[in-house]
Amino acid sequence: MPTTTRAQPDRPEPGDPAGSPVPGNPAESASAARSTAASESRDAGLSGWIMRWLAPLLALVSWGLGWALSPMVTDRQLVLWALAPMAGLLLLRAVLERSLAVAGAGSIVVTLTYGAHLSLVAVATALNPLTCIYAFVGYPDSRRFLRGGAAIAAFTLTAVLCAAGQSGGIPVIVTAPVLFAALVAVNLGVAGAMNHQQAQRDREVAERERATQELQASLRTNAALQRQLVVQARASGAAQERTRIAREIHDTVAQGLIGVIRQLDAVPLDAAEPGRERIARAQQTARECLAETRRAVRALAPHQLEGTGVLAAIAEHVAAWAHTHRVVVTFDGDDAPETVAHGATLFRLVQESLSNVARHARARTVQIAVRAAGSRLVLTVQDDGRGFDPQHCRPGHGLQIMAERVQEAGGTFGIETAPGAGTRIEASLPQ
């Protein structure tokens, strides 16, 4: 079975630009945004928890006060009868909380259940006027459970039920309708003002949540851009350093060797003199060193990319290599993007891959493809040579250099090979 080995980009070190704070890094803003969102989530959770436990508590208080004050407020027998609707509305309240969590506010299930709950509140208030204490939770409940016209209707009915209890029940409503109407108006005014403030607060919370989400999205975008800039800076720095080294070698070592060769050529010795053979060997050695130096300079700064596109340079190099080594090579760059971000790296990968094929693979055909894959550029080089076992065959220096080049560009490098199954090299580079 072919095996795969992959090299991943280096992790940022403590002193690395990608791993250290830089000017404009919005880490503190991200922390503040997360703290704001967490605080608002805690507030919403606390509000829901209070309402879940406050309502049953007010139900017990309203019935207890009705029982204690029954001789003055209403008949004790009616207070006893009020236990039935009180138990029913508490049961419906539990159903409401579950339906709210499952179906959401304003759903048909929640709306119908709340209507039944409100009907039981009306029955309990008729039997025990002090049920108006419990009915007060209808103001926040109308916002929690309902939406639109249903919420407005429930809000108004809550004011009517509270006024009915505050006025002393049905007998007083019949005998003093003006008092009842005044209490309804007061309840609507006070509760309406409270509702308006709560609605304004909800809008502010929603606006903060929206701003927090936008900020977090911006932070993610900035972080991605920062990583991309770091990768590009590394690649640019590596390319500049290679160019500098190539220039230094050309200006010092290469020029020095040229000077040595010219000095040796200028020595006027007779062909029969004994020292002539040594001078000839020195000349040959100097010329070989000069050739190696020039090859090193070309490896550091690819001249094939000057004045032409990287894909055209690769195609030209592939054709020349195939002609020299008598190997069938196909190159497919039809799916490649028009602009290649890491042209020098891509060219060197193709060069080194073909060099490995010539030295080790004994292949008859080689397939090379460059294609775009989302935001990545993928290079594949596959041959039908003899392959090798990565577990028992130490990778050559060329493979290590290829992996390091890809790492410097912020990409991934992989090898798939097995004895007798050829070799497939894949490099993925960011665009």
- What strand line-up does the widest sheet have? 1-5-6-4-3-2
Q: Any idea what the shape is?
A: rod-shaped
Total domain units: 3
Number-wise, the strands total 6
Low-confidence stretches: 1-27, 40-46
Largest sheet: 6 strands, mixed
Question: What class would the helix/strand composition place it in?
Answer: alpha+beta
How many separate helices?
A: 14
Beta-strand proportion: 5-15%
Instruction: Report mean pLDDT, rounded to a whole number.
Output: 79
What fraction, in percent, of the residue positions are helical? 55-70%
Integer-rounded radius of gyration: 42 Å
Order of SSEs, N→C? EHHHHHHHHHHHHEHEEHEE
Q: How widely separated are the two ends?
A: 32 Å
Detail the topology: elements first, then pairings.
Elements: E1 3-7, H1 27-68, H2 70-73, H3 76-81, H4 83-103, H5 108-127, H6 132-135, H7 138-145, H8 149-167, H9 170-175, H10 177-265, H11 275-300, H12 310-325, E2 328-332, H13 343-361, E3 365-373, E4 376-383, H14 397-408, E5 412-417, E6 423-430
Parallel strand pairs: 2-3
Antiparallel strand pairs: 1-5, 3-4, 4-6, 5-6
